[in-house]
Structures are given as structure tokens and as C-alpha cells.
Amino acid sequence: MRESDILRSLEPQIPISSSSPVSTSPPSTELLMPSPGIVTTPHTTVLVITGMHRSGTSLIATILQEAGVYLGDQLIGANRGNIRGHFEDVEFVQFHQTVLRSQNLDIDGWMIQPHKQILPEYVTAAKTLITRKSQRNLWGWKDPRTTLFLNFWQTLIPQAKFIFVYRSPWEVVDSLYRRGTDDLIQQNPKIAIDSWILYNQKILEFYRTNYSNCILVNINKIIKNDLDCILKINQKFKLNLSSPNSDKIIQPNLLNPEAFPSYRTEIIKQYFPKALDLYLALEAQSYPLNAEPELSWSQWQPSDSPQAWICQDWLKIRNLEREIERLNTELKLNKTQPIPSEIIPVKPSNFVSSQGLQPYQAWLNVNQWNEKAQSFLYSRLKENVSKLPKLSVIIPVYNPLVEYLEKAIASVTQQIYVNWELCIADDGSSDTEIQEQLNQWQKQDARIRVIFRPENGNISQASNSAASLATGEFLLFLDHDDQLTPDALAEIALYLGEHPETEFIYSDDDKIDSQGNHFAPQFKPDWSPELLLSYMYIGHLWGVKREIFEQLGGFRIGFEGAQDYDFALRATEICNQIAHLPLILYHWRAIPGSTATSAMAKPNSFKASIQALQEAFQRRGIAGTIQQPNWAIHKQVGVFEHQFTDQGPSVTILIPTKNQKQLLEACLSSLKKTTYQNYQIVIIDNGSDDPDTLAYLEQLPQQVLKIETPDKTFNFAAIHNQAVQQIQSDYLLFLNNDTEVISPHWLSQMMGYAQIKGVGAVGAKLIFPNEKIQHAGVVHGLHQGLAGHGFKLRPSKANGYLSYIQVVRNYSAVSADCLLTPRNLFLDLGGFDSEQFAVAYNDVDYCYRLSEKGWRSVYCPTAELIHHEGATRGYDDSPQEVAAFRHLYGNKVDPYYSPHLSLADENFRIQPRRFFLGSMKKRLRVLIASHLLDLTGAPLHQYEIAVKLAKAGMIEPIVFSFQEGPLQTEYQKQGIQVIICKPHPLAKNYDPATYHLVMQKLSQQLSKLKIDVFYINTLPNFFLVDCAQRLGIPCIWNIHESEPIETYLQGLEEEITRHALECFRFPYRVVFVSSETQKNYLDLNHSHNFTVIYNGINRSSSPMSNATWTREKARESLKIKKDEIVLLLLGTVGSRKGQKDLPLALAKLPPEWQKKVKILIVGDRPSSYSQELKTLVRSLPIVLQEKINILPETRDIARYYQAADIFILTSRIESFPRVILEAMAYGLPIIATPVFGVKEQVKQGVNGLFYPAGNIDALAKVITQLLTDEKLRSHLAQNSSKVLERFNNFEQMVESYGQILQEAYLSGSPVSDSPKIAPQFKGSASELPLVSICIPTYNGEKYLKEALSSVVDQTYPHLEIIISDDSSTDKTLEIIQSFQKNCSLKVSLFQHEQYGLAKNWNYCVSQAHGKYIKFLFQDDLLEPNCLEEFVNLAETDAEIGLVFSPRNIILSPEAIANKILLRAYYGYQDLHQAWSDLKPIQTGKDLLADPQLLQSPLNKIGEPSTILIKKEAVEQLGGFDSEFKQLLDLDLWLRIMGHYKIGFVNQKLSSFRLHSDQQTLKNAESGYSELRNFYQKLYTHPDYSFLSDDLKNVIGRVYKGDL
């Protein structure tokens, strides 16, 4: 087993809920076993302690251990969840986890699946375990998972005694929520109550049927009287256990029992009556210890069925309590303020629709293999044919299931890429069928080579044997039961072709079970050397240059189970170029009984891994030891940590402080526990003036440097740079004064990694006082393209995605709150950038500069410190620093963060994304669907994106709207087609049936546009999302609305409303323009397809770039006096915008300021609100009326912005208003209402001030504040443009939309076959139309037998075979004559002198008697249903002259090395896709009018073997033109188009073979071309008189060389 197979994704998978009533039959989740038999354990007593997690089983185990019961030598230790220890025997825990994992179940037992069989190998292992433990007279074990295996263990150990521990459901669930370390429960809180029901139902059923061997106890009774517990156990089981010391064991506060009824109890009663039923049943059945049940029977009416949202709210309360605790700690409060117990969860809106997908299932949905993705891949291969290498796939084989071996091999033979060889070594398999299958595969494909080893060795030897067969440039490794994706080898080859210097390469992977279900994806970082020291993260698929493999001697014997890990460690030491493809190219099979899921081989694998790592440390000169951390032992995963010495180079710990004596004192006190020996502490006093702090600093033994900046402002970067000048140690450690050391070896660990070659910075795990992560590495791109801390606010003991929280790995940066770096390196790079990043981003910038110089940043999880973030300074970053950071790094891509993971938060969540490599050259036809075409924000935003992408050649936009407007003209000026649809499809209030009919009709109309992607604007256009879904066309949906969703769905029938909500599932992306707006819709994010792209303004567009208006000219044109201060309110006048606030506020300004202001309200249009606004203004005193100008909508906005002094936004609802961006671009201070996305644009006191919408007094107050405080007004104005730079600019926004459109296009579902149109044939086969299969031959002995066999296999019954031989000199005639003798069909052979191509083809047709001609060339093949499908379609319309279909392409083995044939193979797949508008039946002249007609590929029909022709059409048009040798088929196809209809069957009905003997290849090699003659015929010959004048003109220009 490979080491990469050991690691599992530790994130939980699919949770299952339970809602059925308490059953008296055994639950359906019991793990079954195949009659294991009894293990003989004479004279031993076995006690099994089990129960639901968090029920007190550890306490019972402690008591029994103290009483003399042996519970094992290796027990799982303490952690946050059980601070005194779990008391679980590692061997029993590992056994249970292994069996659960073999069934693809959660190893902690949170998952419930149908019946599964426990395999015999596990039974054997269990018996071995029991036999070993039975050396003791009195022994047992404790593990809550045992509850899932009760019948299993009872069958093996009939005399076993079971002690069941239970606790109330509200206490257990609340304990799980309070603990907060179970990722699965954090994701789906209802699993907690479901699991409690499952576990205790199983306990109750087992107890009822095995009463004599069981005790059932409530843990709260034990806390009250543990001695009584021991007494009852002794009595029932006839034991003599001693009484333990109660005071030593019992600490009641550990379990926090529920003293009084609370909302938790009420929740269980109200919403989970099944759990309460079960709890009362446990109380009634339990041992007399519980003579008085804790809860008496009562009657109640549950108000609802169990609801997941109840648990979600409960969990939120507990998370909030922990957050309050953290905040109170930071505020130095002595007491945590609890959430009141009266809080009751609030029921969600009825608008919430059904359950969503798991994130990876949503990812799989948009990453299906489809024709578009295949065509794109073919085009990339065609462009790069000359650079592509030969790949050798290596498979070691030993007794796999034949079914899976065949799938593994088939996954290679079905690759899109063809230049490969498959090298297989069978390692002495005892299954004879395997040898037979391998020999058969070897015969079928010359690229498959097999070596049979005479006896079984091991996986290392077998892999080396297979590799010895390889002749390719690169070796790729495939396990014998795993599978490659169809594009795997193509993507590898393309990358290697573009980057030939690559020496080692790896991809992402996922798991696949026996039913073909995919799960547990591993989206990996780019090359991360330190992560490889934690585990074999490279996994599958990986490959290496053959010369490197041979140089290293292949896999080393003795490292079996970790041979690939050992090789990866050795290879990456000598490889200079290591590449990662962020694509899932490999499916690792995880099935019951496979080595991938069996724990039996893992101890050896772990030992081999430790040995491989230890030797790697020795080779690299790293002084450290390797071990498995306790959590990895518990989880049974191959993850490793390193222990470093306390000796090493000198380190100076630099701690800046200003006052804050208590923080500094705590920090210095904690440093005393540091075990590293060679360090000193230097305090940087940044201007302390607090007497207590100054006195404290005076008496410190450490050196204190007094450093201040000249302007007395805080400049973290500058004071550290200055301090470093006075330091001489080898290393610097920057440490905040608000930190406290947790782990004594923290500095030893950091120094261990710092001394690894290439490491430039090391950061620590920083933890908030509430045990949540503050820093576990820095991820670039968080916070809308900036940088943030990974896993922030996750539990510090959680593992995180791929265990990243707990393992050492590389990040783009680490935090200077605790950062270690070499002093000389720090000085060489110029230290921190104190000019651009005085306070924020200086650490990130430093690490990024390190990276640019080839150094790495490392996160060290074993260096743990508490960080009271924000205790020293605030949280807000300077807008200047944010702008500088975005300017420098706005386009950076984080190499250590997968593009398949979301940047919406810090949790490394999977985002469903169709990420692709390569450049897409196809211009996408995009439907730009807009509700309006006016000059408001949403339509204008879409207009700018469409125009920019069209100019870039990425899209061909077609605008679709329901109302004319000024943007219609603007689009048309850009040459963009605009379609106005009237009446509006939802103009009437339809019933559901009518709605679906209307949508069907609209979809049919839209289908004619041949759209690649829909780009739909605004929420009311949900029905266009519906249309896209009906058509199978991917779409993106731009949501601008922040109002409650029901605002836009009022008046619709309930079923239509529900369908509108379901439409959120369908788009590839639902794009919101602000995070605040997105929050309104999160309950609808079932497909995980939500994203936020901030609007960017196009400063180069005419309104923004209008250089006509300077400030002076603008104010002069508006007759504004020099001393007047202009308040600008710009936006469409309407109630939503609330413009009436401003005139009312004017009336409340101090009189002296009323005289000095001028108000411009721009954006008027006729409406009732406009009239109300004007009436309001007219009601004001004349002197105030004159101060207000209401101006109409205009695109000339520059005039008003230039004239303005203060920008005001009075809106009640806004998502991410464009006008705010424009105001910031013009450097205006802003007054705004804090609604939705405005809060993301405007920062209070930074670039603007807020007032509550509609609060006139408050508006007047902030206006007055800005009028009177010129310094504040100037400050806000200066910051405004800097705050704007925090957001993506226009180009970045457009790039984001373009990327999403291309990804959406590739995410499309596979194209379905065209519907079969079957005529009603009557009578016998002879009454069906006769088809003449015409086979012109010349020296075709190599492939002719296959071709003839494909004719015999036809399902169509009425045919004849006409063979016209052109004087063959090989065995062609012998093959034909033999075929004639043995064939029941009519076969006519005609031999003649050598005619050449055209004459031979025509002669063949002349001898035919059929209504239809079906050509088949001697080297091609027909699918069995070929004739049937063709004739079915041809007979539906008498005007059809030709029917064609797609075809497969067969590339002969010898042709793989020929670049011309390879280019043809990749370039001429799926010719039919080159047509713009291909239909099952259409006139040929429609196809001749296709704008793509003369574009490559010129022949979009295909070769003669792919078509069926009506014989009369060939005869009418004179057959094939003998003037051509190469384009004679295309010439006839075009002439048929001019006179007949054309049929198309969207199935691959034939196979066209490419091989080295083809005339086409010889023509290409000789440079022969008929294109000029062909265009001349098109342009001049009367046969083409039917061509249109426009087409003739284009052809003429081509012919004359103008095009």
C-alpha cells in the first residue's frame, strides 16, 4: 500500500438525519459480520464500556481502571474535549475506525449508512486482538464507537459484560456544541441529535435482549454516588472490584449537568420528541441506580417536525458565547456575559427551499466530462503536437479484483492523448484470470507491455520491473484498481510540452467507491517542500522523468507501504523543476477490503514513512526526530511531526511596546518556559509615558531600546528596522507584546524549520484566548483580493482541510505577530517597507519579497502562542496601506491555495469551479439579458462588461431585453445585435401550467440564437435562468437587488414563486455585487454557486474620461459662486433613493451655512416621486428653493462631480452603488446611509460619514459637521480615492466576468443525442429501401477484414455490397473472395484497371442498385446501427439528399509518432461542431449561408464513410470530380447542399482511421494542395451558380489572395 493511500481527508462527509419513531427492531445501521465464531477466552472477565459520545464513558472508565480493570497499555491521552484523558485503548479505537473507513463511513462514528458486511479479514484481526488482551484475568475497553458493533463483539465474546452509559440529549448535544471541535457537527449541527438517537436506540435494543449481561446507567447518578455504581456492578456481574478514591476521580464540573430546565430542554421537547421518548425509555429501563427518573412523563404537543435550523441556531448560540468570552477577555472584563437562556431560535422564512448539495457534489456537477471540454482539449493538443512527449504509465499488479483492473487499464486506453505506453508488471498473482486478462489487453493494443514476475516480491520490486519496460520520457504511476480521468495524460503532456524543464509533476485527486461515487477530493497546493515533510501530500497522480527515476534506482526495497513517499522525498531533493496541475486527474479507489482502506498494513507503512523521513533529514543535515502526533495515531493517518533540539544559532526576540505594562509582563513571564537555549529578549519602547510602565521597563534585566518615529506616530516597520540595526544575533524573532507562549518548545520548533535550506520566514500558530485560531498562515486573495489569516476562528484543535491546521506547510506569508527570519536576510531585503506599510501588510510584503527571491515561508503548528489581537492597536487598516498593497499585489495568485477552494472566507471550503488550463480562443456567443436598457446602474454595468469583452474578442454578445432605452443605441454603435422581446413573458399572471408553456415557447425561440452562455441581469429575470436550464445552456446570474426577495416575486402563483427560488440552483455562478446583498440570499445557496464581484468603474469610458470639464469650467457652467459649497446627490430620482431627505436637511442647517451651500440633485425622470420632490422644494422658503437644482438624467456626469465638494447618498436600499465609486474616483468626501453594500464602500470617519436613512436631523448634523470642519472634509476627500483602490478596478472586474463566462461554457452538460425519428416501415425487409454499401479498394489488406466485418454486423436488413477494386497488388482480392464465400449478403466484386480515386468511386456508385449509397473505405468501420439510423432519418423527408453524423477517429499505433497525423487526429474531432446552427434536418442552402462555412475545418461534413447519399443526387450532379485528388468529397457535398436538404444524426456511427499509408498523409508530406483550384471552381464554375453573391464575393477575395 502506498503512503499516499494512508492519508485521508479528515473533513467529514455526508451526514445522515433520523426522524423515524423509536423502533423495537434493531436499527438498520448495524454492521453485519459473516459468522465469525467464538473466541475462546478461558477464565477471563471482559467489561465493555460504551455509550454515546460526551455521555460520560471516560468517567466510568476512570472509575473502573481505579477499581482494578485493565483497559490497555496505550490509551488515548487528554485534549480539550477530555482534559483528563479519553481512557480509550488505541488498538480498539483503530480497529473500529478501520472498519468504519472501509465502509466509507466517518471514523468517529457520526455517519449512518445501510447494512454493510464486515469482511473476514477484520474478523480475523478482532480475534487476534481479543486473544492478546485475554492474557489478563479482568480486562475491557472503552470506546463510544463500540455501540455500532454490539452484536459483532457479543458473538465473538459471549461472556462479555456491557456497561452502557447515557446522558440526556440536551446535555450531550450542548456539550458537543460547546466543545466546538467536531468539524462535521459545525457544518451540520443536526447530526448531534441524530447521533444521540441512533446510539441510544441501539443501546436500548441490545439491553432489552441481553439484560443479564448489561448494566444501563445515567452518568449524573454516578457523579452523585460512584461507590453505589461499583457495588451494583459487583452484584450483577459477580465481581470483586475495589472501591476507588471518589475525591480523586469525580469532578462534577467536568460534565456541567443541566441543573434547571432551559431552552435546550424545551427544544428537545418541542422539536425532537423522538429523542425525549427514547430518553424516558432509557430512564425507565436503567439499573435501580435511577429509581427516580430525572424527567417525569408529561404530555405536550410538538409544534413541528425535527428541523435542522433549530440545531443551527442552538450551535450559533454556543459559538456566540465563545465569541463573547473572547471579546470580554480582550476588554479585560472579569466575567463572561452569557447568552440569556430564554433565547429561543427563530424559524426561518417560508421562502427557504429544499436541502442543498454537498460542496463536492456541486463541484462534480460543474466538472462533468463533456463535448465542449473535450473539443477544447483537442484544440490545445493540435496546437502543441510538435512539443508533446511520450508518457509511460506504470502499473504494478498483484491479485486485484479483475473488474477494477480492467477499469484501471481501460482508463488508460480511453485517454484523449494517444502517445502513451502502458507498462504492467504482474507480481506473481495467484489468480490465473489476471494473467489471461493482461495477455488479452497486450494483444489488443501494441502500446500495452506486460512482464510476468515468476514469484511475488513486493510493490517496490513490481513497480521497478514495470518501469524497466518504459521507453517514454516521463513515468506516471497508477495503482491497479484506480482510474485516470479521460484528460489526465493530455493535461500532463500539454504541461510538459510547454515546460520541458519539468522533472517531477503531480495533480489533484479524489476517491471513488465500488459504486462509482466520488468523494474526499484533495485540492493540493503547488510545490510545498515543508508540507511533504508532514505527509505524502503529493498523492496521485504523480510522475517523474525517466532519467531521474533511473538515477535514483527506482523504489527502494524495504520501504513498502511508503515506497512512493520515500521516492518523492529523494526525487524532490534533486529535481529543480517540480510542477503541480490543479486538476483532479486521478480517482483513487477506496473499497471494503482494499489495501487503501485496511488498517492491518498501516503500522508498517507508518514505520516505513518515519524511516524515510528520518533518512531525508539525515541527507539534508536537519537535526530532528520524526514521530506521529497523538491525533494522527487516533485518526490512523500517515501524518508526522518533527521534534527539534533546544540548541542552535542565536536568536533575538524583539518585542515592541508602548505602555501596556500588563500585556508586556504576561508576555515576558510566558517566555520563561521557553526551552530553546540560545536567545535574548530586546524590548522596543515606542514612547511609553505611563509611569507604571516606565518603572517596569527600568527594572527589567532585558535590553530596552527607546525608539520613536519623528512624528510620534506608530510605525511598526520603522521601529523594527531601526532596532535590527543594533542586533547582532543570527536570527530575529518579531513578537507582539500581546502574546503569551503556550508550548515550551515553540522556539526550538521554529528554529528547526528556519534552518532548513530555502526557508526565509517561520510563523507560529496564534490562538485567541477562546481557543480559536487567530493565525495559521496567510492566504493571498482573501477579503476581496487582499490577504488574510487561514482558518481564522476555527477551533485550534481542529484539523482543517487536509489537516492543514495541524501540520507544517508553506504559505505565501506568515504574520509578524510572531515571525522568525535570518537577520542577514532581513537586512539584505531592506527590512520592512516602512514607507508604504507602516502598520499593516509589512509582514506580508516582506514574505512576498522573500518569495520573489526564492525563499519560502513556513507555518509551524507546534509553536503555539495566545494572541490578544487588537489589545495593542485597533483593527482598521490605513486606506493608503490597503491601496499600496493592492497596487503591488492585486494580480498575485497564491501558489499554496488551490483555485478550487473559496476565497470568500478563511475556511478552505470547496467552491464548485470549472477551473481550466490553457487559453480559450473560442469566441463565446453570450446572451446579454437585461431587464432594462436605461442608464441606471445594473444595465450600465452589464453594458460596460459586454463591450469590453467583445472588444477583447472573448465574446460575441447578443443583447436581449424587454424594453427599449438609450443603451440600445449605445450597443448598436458597438456593432452589437439587440433583440427587444415584447410583450414581456410574465406580463400576465399565469397559472403554473401556462407559465411552463410560455417558458417552453420562449426557450424554443432562444434556442435559435445558438447561445453558448447566458449572462442574465437582475432578480426579476429568473425565468431566463429557467430557460437556460431547459436548454441545457450554462448561465451566470447577476443579482443587484438588496430588497427582500419577496418584493420581486409578489403576484406570482405559489408554485411559480417556489420555482423562481429553485432557479438559484441552476446558474454556474450567481454573482452579487456586494457581500451585504449576498447575505440576504444565503439560504438559497444550495449549489454553492454564490460569489461576490465588486463593481469597478471604467475611468476611460466617456462619462468618466470627459476632459472637457475642469472644476472651474463645470462650476462656471452651473453658475456656482466661488464661495459656494456644492452638495451633489446623483442617481435616478425615486422613492428608493430618498432624495427628499436633502431638501429637508437643508431647511435644518444653521442659517449661515444655508447661504453657502448649493444642492445639485441629478437624475430626474418623470414619476410621482419626482413630482413630490419638486412640490417639497417649492414649499421651502424662496431663498432655499434657489439653492436647489433638480436636473434630468444624463451621461455627462463628469460636469457635476467636478463641480461638487461633498457627495451625498440618501438611498433606503442600495447594493453597491456606482455613484459612490464615481464620487471616490473624483476624490469627494461622502455622506451616505449605511445600507447594504454602502457599508463596504464607505468607512466611517475614513472617507465618509453615515446617517440613518430618513433621519433628517442626523443628516443635517453630519452636513453641518463637514461644512464647519474643513480639516475633516479634506481628510475624507484625500482618503476617498485610496479607499476606492481597495476594490478591484474595472479591468480586474471584467477579467473576473470573462473568466466565469469561459468556465461556465466548459461546465455545460454533455450534449444529448438528437431525437430518433423512426418511420413506420411496413412489410418485409425487402420492402425497405435498398442501401448499397460501396467499398472502393486498393491494396487494403491491412484493415479490410475489419471493415467488412462491420458491414456484416449492421442491424439494417436490406443492403448489398459493391466492391470496386483499383488493381490491388496485395492480398486484397483474396480477402474479398473469401468474404464472398462466407457472407450471406449479396456481394458484387468488380476488378478493373487502375482508375484513380474519383473514377473508382464513381464506378462503384454506377454498379449500385440501392436507393441510397453508403460509402465505406477499406480502412474505416461502421457502427452496427449506422445504416438503421441513417435510413430512419433519410426516409422522413423526400428532399433529403445527404445524411451525415460525427465519427470516431482511430489512430493506428505506428501513426502516433507522426506529427501530421497527430495534428489531424486532435484537430478534426467532432467536425460538426464547427457549424453555427446545425439541425437534424435543414436545407443545404441554410448551411451554405453559415458564416463559418469557409472557416477551418473546411470540410465540416466529414469523409465518405461518415455519410449516406441518395443515389439520384450523385447521378444528377455528375458524381465526384476527377480534377481533384483530395477535396473531391467536399466538392460533391457542397454541390448536394445547393440542391437538397441535409440530415444530421448526432451519434458517432462510423470510425475513420488515420494511418501511415494514407494518400492524405502523402499529399501533406509532399506539400500538395488543391485549395486554389477548389476556390477557383467555387468562384467560376457553373456548378456553383446557386451560391449567393455575398458568398461568391468572399470566395473571390480568397481566390485572388485578398483574404
Number of strands: 53
Global outline: globular
* CATH superfamily heading of the largest domain: P-loop containing nucleotide triphosphate hydrolases
Instruction: Kindly provide the radius of gyration, computed on alpha-carbon positions and rounded to a whole number of angstroms.
Output: 38 Å
Based on the coordinates given, report the CATH architecture of the largest domain: 3-Layer(aba) Sandwich
Number of helices: 61
CATH topology of the largest domain: Rossmann fold
Helix content: 25-40%
Structural domain tally: 7
Q: Could you give the distance between the termini?
A: 61 Å
| Mean pLDDT, all residues | 87
Supply the helix-strand structural class. alpha/beta
- Give the percentage of residues in beta strands: 15-25%
Report the major sheet.
Answer: 10 strands, mixed
Describe the structure.
By secondary structure, this protein is of the alpha/beta class. 37% of the residues lie in helices and 17% in strands. The protein has 61 helices and 53 strands. Strands 18, 19, 20, 21, 22, 23, 24, 27, 28 and 29 form a 10-stranded mixed sheet that branches. Strands 7, 8, 9, 10, 11, 12, 13, 14 and 15 form a 9-stranded mixed sheet that branches. Helix 7 runs parallel beside helix 12 and helix 60 (1571-1580) runs antiparallel to helix 61. The longest helix is centred in the first third of the chain and has 23 residues, at 308-330. The two termini are 61 Å apart. The model is unreliable at 1-30, 257-261, 289-306, 329-353, 595-601, 871-875 and 1310-1323 (pLDDT under 50). Residues 937-1099 form the Glycosyltransferase subfamily 4-like N-terminal domain. Residues 9-31 have a biased composition (Low complexity).
